[in-house]
Sequence to fold (471 residues):
Amino acid sequence: MKKLLVVALALSIVGCSSGSKRADGTVVSDSKSGYRLRAFEEKTLANGLRLLFIPDNTLPYVSFSMLVRSGSALDPKGQEGLASMVAELLNKGTAKRSATQIAADLGNIGAEFDANAAYDYSVVSASALSPNADALLANVLELATSPSFPDAEIERTRKQALAQIARLPDNADSFADLAFASYLYGDHPYGRPSIGTAKSIRDLKKKNIIQQYLKTYRPNNTILAVVGQMTPEFKAKVEQGFGAWQKRDLPAMTAPATPKIEGLSIRVIDYPSLTQSQIRIGEMGIKRNDPDFLALRVGNTILGGAFASRLNDRIRKDLGLTYGIGSGFDARMEVGPFAIETFTKNASVGQAVKEALAVVEKFKTEGATADEVTRVKGYLKGIFPAAIETPEKLAFNLLLLRHYGIPDTYLTNYLRDIDALSVGEINRAMAKALDTKNVRVLVYSKASDVVPQLEPIVGAGKVEVLPAVQK
Fold:
């Protein structure tokens, strides 16, 4: 499932391959020689901004992808949703233009603009046809570096966020994700909702938004990739424009240690009208820089990271309990979750949970087979090009690699490194990472239907039940 599958992060030009060039400048390489990408230019400006230029002449366009190295995990306690609010307001007004004027000006040049916040970072992106490159640059510069956060737009955005939060219980999949994060991480920033809570959104002040923007949207806290058709003159304009962005001393931004999970416990979020249940089963996983990252990607693909996986074969194919089930390590700056995600009718919740736990336990104790490893290696190598098939995908992956401190050799050597993994290495990594005795199970359902099924798993009276209310 897309939220849980390990993301194939990114790569660089450092490939040491020989191969046949395509018209777009990429090099087709095999697993023995490595994988090489189109050339790109990288530099750091005097104000600390890391800048990448990725030429692409296949289409007449230019795009900007800007990664700010701060996300919702840095929202102060009680101000959940702050990073998301800042991102949402970037194009809602500057000292020069109103939100209406900005929307009209972007529309006049056929430009797209978007900004959002994830746990570990925020992303601003924009694109337009290359004849409008200068106008696009001017817009991105103004919106990203000098938003004014008008009072009326803050209130409008606040109302929209509150309406989204109020609707969450009816969006079972998203609500279960948030409830599971809270259950697994508790008061840790990863356990707090990126979109905020009704109380935190109501309490946010304009000064909070401005302070957070000034603290995080700084050139020395940002990596920018520019993609598409570009002349030397245009690149000089980009450097000059963003080079004028004033840097600031960055405050220490550290996250507390992730909590330790002890024992198997189950929480049911009660929503009496539900006839189908959302199920999340998980534990603490890994950081993105974990040396076993690639081995765990192979192992998890066998376990539940693809349609042809043990979890899907057992829970969907053999037992018919669901239309889909997936698992994954969501590796982050701090320890991210390992989670299994599925849904089933209320009457089969207990069976689905027990069977999923049994599949994980069997994998931990017995490991993958040589045939499974061979099959999944072929699958992962086959889908690898899709992760970087467009210059924009390459750009975003390059930003992520730099953010997480992963060398570009992660992708230049990806095919070789996948091939080099042994069955023993994969099984040792999975056995180490999977802690089947210390697990959290979250069920979003009608409590009276599912609690009797879940009590035999943890004991009578030990299933925690909470109402589906966002405060």
Q: What stands out?
A: Residues 264-467 form a domain with the Cytochrome Bc1 Complex; Chain A, domain 1 fold (CATH 3.30.830.10). The two ends are 28 Å apart (CA to CA).
